[in-house]
Amino acid sequence: ETAAPATAVAKRPHRAILSEADLVELLRRMDAAPLVAFEAECIGDEPMSARLVGLSFAFEREAAYLPLAHDYPGAPQQIDPAAALRILKPWLERDDRQKVSEDVKLLCHVLANQGVRLAGFAHDTLLESYVFEVHERHDLGALALRHCGWTLLGYDEVTGKGAARIPFSSVEIARATEYAAGKIDCVLALHELLFERIQKDEKLAFVYGKIEMPALPVLFRMERNG
User: Fold this and answer.
1) Helix and strand element counts for the chain (H, E)
2) Is residue 165 within 8 Å of residue 104, measured between CB atoms?
3) 82: number of CA atoms within 13 Å, CB side?
4) Over pLDDT 70: what percentage of the chain?
5) C-alpha gyration radius of the chain
6) Is the model's pLDDT at 226 over the cut of 70?
């Protein structure tokens, strides 16, 4: 059984971005942040066919979900996906805007399908987890409980199971925000915890910096040129 830490990590405020003005303001703050956690929410987990539903971001003291394709009855108006990506594209493609995620490969493929060539990923929480404690579970839910003291909202909890499962695009935006912003908040919190601990251990820092991390730029070259 996974034990939670003695003291839970504080969560960032979570919110949804529903207007272009709010997205432009979010981008302004992200552009000035030293590191941003970034993920995509999709329908399907096959990189070449996954359909983009929304994007999530966490940095400094906030976490946000940008819904793009929620289409249930009564869904509020969302930013047009093409317009949102047009606003975000310069930041997404800049190598000097550092990003962290837990699934770089999926992000590369999903956004390449939208004409965006991602750059700037400096860290990967899955790699950090493997370096720090290779013998433990590395799924985000287990990491959240073990290191942050958080119980994350699960995918099955928001979409249902089996025959009753609905696509993520049919999840109400408030609920989707709770799920997606909670996840990306956790990704950034885990990076902040794990990277600091890795850096304090000379052997782990060597493994992460000299062996594991070069895989990220190589992956980017492969995905972007493939």
Assistant:
1) 9, 6
2) no
3) 0
4) 90
5) 17
6) no
DSSP result, 41-97: EEESS-TTTPEEEEEEEEETTEEEEEE----STTPPP---HHHHHHHHHHHHT-TTS
The average pLDDT across 136-151 equals: 93
Give 168's DSSP letter.
Answer: G
Question: pTM of the predicted model, to two decimals?
Answer: 0.90
| Strand-by-strand arrangement of the 99-101 sheet | 14-16, 62-67, 51-59, 36-43, 99-101, 121-124
Q: Is 175 exposed, middle or buried (0-12, 13-18, 19+ CB in 10 A)?
A: middle
At 120, list the tokens. Answer: 């700037």
The SS3 call for residue 123 is: strand
Q: Which residues of 39-56 are buried (b: 16+ CB within 10 A; e: fewer)?
A: bbbbeeeebeebebbbbb
Dihedral of CA atoms 200, 97, 134, 154 in degrees, nearest 10, equals 120
Cβ atoms 32, 95 nearer than 8 A: no
Tell which residue, 178, 185, 183, has the closest CA to residue 158: 178
Total number of residues shown for the chain? 226
Quick check: 162 and 170 in contact, CB under 8 A? no
Q: How many beta carbons lie within 10 A of that of residue 203, not counting itself?
A: 9
